[in-house]
Design goal:
single chain; 335 residues; alpha/beta; Rossmann fold; 10 helices; 18% strand
Length: 335
């Protein structure tokens, strides 16, 4: 009976969002966006709006490549190593990974992390401090993955790199001080999309058990008519207008007509058999509604889910209280 009730609620929730999108949805003005943001972020609504194109992407990548590895505030509490591991298929390039191991005796659970960047940029340096914090505070071995980027490497290249790293971590866990029987994964933004797609691939292949997934502001599907996408179509930072551009780069020009299998986590034909999931969405984020619907679909399928929407936060920013919650969630499902 419980599952039927959840299914009905999820159906009602999804239909309500769909019904709202049949009306004309006007983009919010900077002043309207500012009112929706919490006070410390309200001025972000008036920042310059960036143009997203391949030239800007290449320029951003160049800056990232020339930047030094950030100094860690807790470097005395862990060891950091860098490896190149084999790709999934013959001919795939090696995958750069960075491993963060807390200085504690015995083997620790493993947590794979995938950085954001719209599938087109991002590096191991982006979440360097965050990965170190997770390793120390959660007591886990964190493996950060430098997966291949679009548009040069379209889907499923990045997901293949993620899956190769997962299988490698299972096989080589003892060598890095990790526990092969306890592996979870997560990511932010595009990295959450990579992680969510990877668990679908693993389920369909009947692969090794994944304890859980942690997805921060995930790009769940390709629906650009959702309220959050249309209202936040032209804002500073990640905007609704960026989504179709990035999807074309990641999935190809024909993505709307022929969506690849397992391309994004919310596009699965079935949500059954997936691991426990923690989802955080931002209230002032074009990806918000897709992430919420994805979470409801998981709940309807009987998957244990923690689903949190943080009003007033823009894409990529979350309150500090999220991380203690995530650590509790991780240890609840490392089993």
């Amino acid at each position: 009976m419980k599952k039927i009730i959840l299914t009905g609620f999820a159906f009602f929730f999804a239909c309500s969002l769909k019904a709202q999108t049949t009306k004309e949805i006007k983009p919010l003005t900077p002043a309207e966006v500012s009112k929706r943001l919490i006070s410390k972020y309200s001025l972000l609504a008036f920042a310059p709006i960036t143009k997203l194109d391949y030239e800007n992407i290449k320029s951003e990548r160049k800056k990232q490549a020339s930047s030094a590895i950030p100094k860690l505030s807790n470097e005395d509490s862990l060891t950091v190593s860098y490896l190149q591991i084999p790709g999934l298929n013959q001919g795939d390039p090696e995958i750069p990974i960075r491993i963060y191991k807390p200085k504690k005796p015995g083997k620790a659970p493993i947590f794979l992390w995938f950085h954001g960047g719209g599938f087109v940029y991002g590096s191991l340096n982006w979440d360097h401090q965050n990965c170190a914090n997770i390793a120390v505070r959660a007591g886990v071995v964190v493996i950060s993955v430098d997966y291949r980027l679009a548009p040069e490497n379209k889907f499923p290249a990045g997901v293949n790199d993620a899956y190769a790293t997962f299988l490698w971590s299972k096989k080589h866990a003892a060598e890095i001080g990790g526990d092969a029987d306890h592996i979870g994964l997560g990511g932010g933004s595009a990295g959450a999309g990579i992680a969510g797609s990877m668990v679908l691939v693993n389920r369909d292949k009947k692969g090794p058990k994944i304890d859980f997934q942690v997805l921060f502001f995930p790009p769940a599907d390709v629906d650009t008519n959702r309220i959050s996408v249309r209202e936040l179509w032209n804002i500073p930072g990640v905007k609704g207008a960026d989504i179709p551009v990035l999807l074309k780069m990641y999935l190809g020009d024909e993505y709307q007509r022929k969506i690849p299998v397992n391309a994004l986590p919310g596009l699965a034909k079935s949500f059954e058999g997936l691991p426990p999931t923690y989802i955080a969405t931002c209230g002032v984020d074009p990806l918000r509604d897709g992430g919420l619907v994805y979470g409801q679909n998981l709940i309807a399928a009987g998957i244990p889910v923690e689903l949190h929407n943080f009003p007033g936060y823009p894409h990529g920013l979350l309150p500090d209280k999220v991380f203690p919650e995530v650590y509790d969630f991780m240890h609840q499902y490392y089993k």
